[in-house]
Write a structure and sequence with these properties.
Blueprint (H helix, E strand, L loop, with lengths): L5 E3 L6 E3 L13 E2 L17 E7 L2 H13 L4 E4 L1 H9 L7 E6 L3 H12 L13
Antiparallel strand pairs: 1-2, 1-3, 4-6, 5-6
Helix pairs in contact: 1-3
Length: 130
């Protein structure tokens, strides 16, 4: 009996049995073998410790901060994020969350977030004629 060949999608890493030639989701050609282990983009060293760089109960501010940190490739953790799910259900529960980064990325993260926090809000009536 012949040996079973495994193929996989190089994009989504889903394995297929022999006979398939294209990923049904990504529509790319499959490669022979099993997918290689995913490399860790940002290995985390627990010895560095975590520091809080932002505390907020504003979901827009949290989303902006997460976007800035992700774009700058600064790994972060959000403590209390599960509480924001409750806040989504009951808007009157403004739960506080803490955004943490590794101590060695603290200065970079604070500088990034400082610019966001110091931005002048646009007055609600800025576009209206007086």
């Amino acid at each position: 009996m012949g040996e079973r060949c495994i193929v996989y999608c190089p994009q989504c890493r889903v394995e297929y049995r022999d006979g398939f030639t294209e990923c049904s989701d990504c529509h790319v050609s499959l490669l022979a073998g099993t997918p290689p282990a995913e490399p860790q983009a940002h290995p985390f060293d627990p010895a560095l410790g975590l520091v809080v760089v932002l505390e907020t109960n504003d979901s827009i501010e949290l989303a902006l901060a997460k976007g800035l940190l992700k774009e700058a490739e600064i790994p972060f953790f959000v403590l209390g994020q599960i509480a924001t799910l409750v806040g989504d259900v009951d808007a009157f529960l403004h739960k506080w969350v803490k955004v943490q980064v590794a101590r060695d990325r603290e200065a970079e993260a604070r500088e990034l977030l400082e610019g966001m926090l110091q931005a002048e809000p646009i007055p609600e009536d800025a576009g209206e004629n007086a």
